[in-house]
Amino acid sequence: MTDLKYKRIILKLSGEALAGDQGFGIHPPVIKTVAKEVKDVYELGLQIGIVVGGGNMWRGESGAQMGMERAQADYIGMLATIMNALALQDNLESLDVPTRVQTSIEMREIAEPYIRRKAIRHLEKNRVVIFAGGTGSPYFSTDTTAALRAAEINADAILMAKNGVDGVYSADPNIDASAVKYDHLTQMDIINKGLHVMDSTASTLSMDNDIPLEVFNLNKPGNIKKVVLGEQIGTTVRG
Ligand code: GTP
After folding, report:
1. pLDDT value at 1 more than 70
2. Atom 18 in ligand 1: which residue has the minimum CA distance?
3. Closest of 145, 147, 156, 90 to residue 123, by C-alpha
4. CATH code (residue 219)
5. CA–CA separation, 94 vs 64, rounded Å?
6. Distance, CA 108 to ligand 1 centroid (Å)?
7. Are the C-beta atoms of 77 and 58 separated by less than 8 Å?
């Protein structure tokens, strides 16, 4: 087998990564490209869990800002992640990648419920497991879901696939021309420097459980593969 940096990963995909330039919904050519990238990595023989966001359809926070009750707005967001998960499953299966979707909120007619031990069994049987529905509770992000599922399945790392951003920068590179990209950071660096990688709940959970993060640009073809093969392309957060 190829020399892999990680044997079991959680890949965190933002909902926006499925929308493409249209910025909303699921853009079929874009989701197909993402599925192909996942297939390329799957073929290296590592175990892959995917946590997908829902921001291409709905953001709980925005709903709350518009006056909706936060918990209610978050439930709509959770349903959005389930739609994305089903679309991703369809695309992966059309490429012959065996896939199981597990939802944190039970809807058994559509997908199997999240059962930790079953998820691990699926991974051991080389099925990509898509964790849908966030944590199943309002007030938690899908970044937090990624950290939680990574801890639960003993993942070696969380791969934070970003939409157009190459890694963690000292400042916003779109605003500040002097911003530099960090290759390596510790979780404490992130706190001390006030950098934003994940929300604070997700950061704390991954720090407390010693789960490394790899932050990289999903939009460059082959990047997921480069990360799992140990090439330093984005930012590694460890320790
Ligand atoms: P093994 O136990 O390793 O054979 O796993 P498996 O997933 O192949 O077997 P299982 O019989 O559990 O599932 C067969 C198919 O049914 C898979 O596509 C599962 O995702 C799906 N499935 C299992 N449980 C549920 C459920 O509660 N609801 C829905 N909608 N699908 C389910």
Report:
1. no
2. 100
3. 156
4. 3.40.1160.10
5. 37
6. 10
7. yes
CA distance 201 to 175: 27
**C-beta of residue 1 within 8 angstroms of C-beta of residue 41:** no
Q: How many domains does the chain have?
A: 1
Distance in Å, CA 201 to ligand 1 centroid: 32
The span from the CA of 144 to the CA of 136, in Å, is 11
Give a yes or no: residue 1 inside a domain: no
Single-letter amino acid, residue 194: G
Ordered strands of the 99-103 beta sheet: 112-113, 99-103, 128-132, 47-52, 8-13, 157-162, 213-217, 235-237, 184-185
Say if 147 falls within a structural domain.
yes
117 lines ligand 1 (CB under 6 A): no
Reported confidence tier of residue 71, pLDDT bands at 50, 70, 90: very high
Residue 108 near ligand 1, beta carbon < 6 Å:
yes
Distance 98 CA to ligand 1 centre (A): 12
Q: How confident is the model over 85-113, as pLDDT tens digits?
A: 999 999 999 999 999 999 999 999 999 99
Higher pLDDT, 48 or 187: 48
Kindly state whether residue 210 falls inside one of the protein's structural domains.
yes
The residue whose CA has the least distance to atom 32 of ligand 1 is 112
* Residue 104 belongs to domain spanning: 8-237
2 in a domain, yes or no? no
CA of 158 to the centre of ligand 1 (A): 25
